[in-house]
Amino acid sequence: MPTSAAGQENVACRHDWHQTGNQVVVTIYAKNAIPEQSNVEANRTVLTTHIQFENNKVFRRDFHLWGVVDVSQSRVSMVPSKVEVTLRKADAVAWGKLEDPRAPKVEVVPDTQEDVPEEKEEVRPDWDISDDDISESDEEDVPQQNESKDEKSQADEMPPLDEPKDVPPENTQPMKKK
Fold first, then answer.
1. Is residue 83 part of a domain?
2. How many other C-beta atoms can be found within 10 angstroms of the C-beta atom of residue 37?
3. What is the CATH number of the domain that holds 69?
4. What's the rounded mean pLDDT across residues 136-149?
5. Which class for 33: exposed (0-12), middle (13-18), buried (19 or more C-beta within 10 A)?
6. What is the distance between the alpha carbons of residues 119 and 108, in angstroms, rounded to a whole number?
7. Residue 81 placed within a domain
8. Where is the CS domain (predicted)?
């Protein structure tokens, strides 16, 4: 675990959230939080937490919120088992998630007394594959080089449809009105 110069151990904490019509409640499960050495700050779109608990453990996290909050009507509650942040929504609309997925991902890595945010490099899957990775079933879908155009067009054409047959009147029934 990373430690800061003051001997504090930076740890991850389990957190959860739920919402009502006009509130979002963020719960951080940090047992025995020390209120004198912890702080929670917010602006209209970012919730910043620094929670010290169990003497030397510290949870730091910036939550880039999905929606906008009214900071003046929001509050924090620290109880022995958790820290609960109740944020008042600026607009009474449902949030799809707690955090905005478009927000930059920033990891806090302390290397001195002050924290210096370091941007995480986004990892993208490697979609490029070599020809050796194509299975035989994929090759069956690829037309062979030596097929003629006529053979290809015949394989692509749909068979002709049969002409509709007349249905004798005794087998028909009128449609019922609903």
1. yes
2. 13
3. 2.60.40.790
4. 52
5. buried
6. 9
7. yes
8. 10-99
pLDDT tens for each residue of 55-113: 899 999 999 999 999 999 999 999 999 999 999 999 999 999 999 988 877 555 443 44
**Helix/strand/coil (H/E/C) assignment for every residue in 17-59:** EEECCCEEEEEECCCCECHHHCEEEECCCEEEEEEEECCCEEE
Q: Which residue shows structure tokens 């740890």?
A: 11
CA angle 66, 23, 62 (to 5 degrees): 40
55 belongs to a structural domain: yes
- Say if residues 88 and 108 touch (Cβ distance below 8 Å): no
Domain range enclosing 67? 9-93
- The tens digit of pLDDT for each residue in 99-115 reads 998 887 755 544 344 44
pTM of the model: 0.57
Instruction: Show the tokens assigned to 44.
Output: 């209209």
Helix H or strand E encompassing 79: strand 69-79
Distance CA 139, CA 135 (A): 7
Q: Is 133 part of a structural domain of the chain?
A: no
67 CB neighbour count, 10 Å cutoff: 19
